[in-house]
């Protein structure tokens, strides 16, 4: 098993405007969270990317960019609290053995994010509070959602691309790298039950949400972040959240766990279209054109060719690859 950093791999020294506070926070989180376990990267049959249509600067190219404001929108200091409850799921994961409490506790201590009383309450069933992303809870939340997404019994796992992409379902980052976290029960735990309309919503969103480490949607959760995306979609759908609410939560998830890539993407929207990050619809951001590895690469090329990257440090980002 090996680990590949996928966060801020080549941040340039910046001149002029310097975002000290924002980028120290972004860099610190990326080091802690920007990893993927090595796995067999593949595109499963039936999961084909849309065509990328990222375009360069328009009439808005003279827009004055406020990098500090952009960073705060993408990656707010206070983090995010989502309109969805954990319920008893973390406790069920512990009781089933899908979470190794000793590993989780030790790993979080090593990451300087030790378990809080609230998180301990989630794990022992006495707290059923909201899902949050913050400086102190980011790794804990990633572990929980990863465990949900990969272990919950659902057609996306049991009958989808993970089982049918042409290789072993146990050779993916989300499965082969799971061992230390606990007992992998691939699609065998009844954690979240969905009715037909909720499953249709999950299928639709999971097919259209990407992450910038690879070109696969959440429908093919072949890495820890992909599995976590799927877990979040299922959790919100079963609690009656609508399409817009789920997309908004995933936009916050992606920007929190891939802060450099989404800062760059927010700069792109502001520079080329004069649109603030908060005004860009989440489903637009999360599609192949902007949130896949290819889509982000195209965004980066526009910024680079337009000389925007001389104003603020940037990175080509990471990738999910063998």
What does this structure look like?
The chain is built from 16 helices and four strands. The protein is mainly α. It is globular.
Shape: globular
Percent of residues in helical segments?
40-55%
The N- and C-terminal alpha carbons lie at a distance of 11 Å
Walk across the major sheet and give the strand order.
1-2
> How many strand segments?
4
Q: Mean pLDDT, as a whole number? A: 83
Q: Classify the beta-strand content into a percent band.
A: under 5%
Question: What's the short version?
Answer:
The protein is 48% helix and 5% strand. The protein has 322 residues and is mostly helical. The N and C termini lie close together (11 Å).
Pick out its properties.
322 residues, mainly alpha, two-stranded antiparallel ribbon, two-stranded antiparallel sheet, 16 helices, 48% helix, 5% strand
What are the SSEs and their pairings?
Layout: E1 3-5, H1 20-33, E2 35-37, H2 67-74, E3 80-85, H3 89-96, H4 101-110, H5 117-124, E4 130-133, H6 138-151, H7 155-158, H8 161-164, H9 173-176, H10 196-208, H11 224-238, H12 243-257, H13 259-273, H14 282-286, H15 288-291, H16 293-305
Antiparallel strand pairs: 1-2, 3-4
Helix pairs in contact: 2-13, 6-11, 10-11, 11-12, 12-13, 13-16
């Amino acid at each position: 098993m090996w680990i590949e950093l996928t966060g801020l791999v080549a941040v340039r020294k910046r001149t002029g405007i310097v975002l000290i506070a924002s980028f120290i926070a972004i860099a610190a989180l990326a080091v802690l969270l920007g990893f993927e376990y090595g796995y067999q990267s593949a595109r499963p049959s039936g999961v084909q990317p849309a065509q990328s249509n990222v375009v360069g600067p328009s009439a808005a190219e003279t827009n004055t960019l406020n990098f500090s404001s952009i960073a705060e929108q993408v990656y707010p200091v206070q983090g995010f609290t989502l309109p969805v409850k954990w319920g008893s799921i973390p406790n069920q994961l512990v009781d089933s053995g899908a979470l190794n409490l000793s590993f989780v506790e030790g790993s979080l201590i090593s990451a300087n994010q030790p378990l809080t009383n609230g998180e301990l309450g989630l794990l022992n069933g006495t707290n059923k509070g909201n899902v949050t992303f913050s400086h102190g809870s980011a790794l804990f939340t990633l572990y929980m959602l990863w465990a949900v997404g990969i272990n919950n019994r659902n057609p996306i796992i049991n009958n989808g691309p993970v089982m049918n992409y042409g290789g072993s379902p146990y050779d993916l980052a989300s499965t082969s790298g799971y061992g230390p976290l606990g007992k992998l029960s691939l699609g065998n735990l009844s954690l979240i039950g969905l009715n037909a309309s909720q499953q249709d919503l999950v299928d639709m969103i999971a097919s259209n949400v990407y992450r910038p480490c690879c070109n696969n949607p959440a429908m093919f959760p072949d890495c820890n972040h992909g599995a976590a995306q799927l877990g979040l979609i299922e959790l919100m759908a079963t609690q009656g959240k609508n399409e817009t609410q789920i997309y908004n939560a995933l936009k916050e998830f992606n920007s929190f766990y891939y802060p450099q890539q989404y800062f760059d993407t927010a700069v792109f929207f502001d520079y080329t279209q004069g649109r603030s990050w908060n005004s860009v619809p989440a489903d637009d951001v999360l599609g192949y054109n902007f949130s896949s590895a290819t889509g982000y690469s195209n965004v980066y090329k526009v910024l680079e060719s337009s000389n925007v990257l001389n104003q603020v440090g940037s990175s080509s980002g990471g990738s999910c690859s063998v």
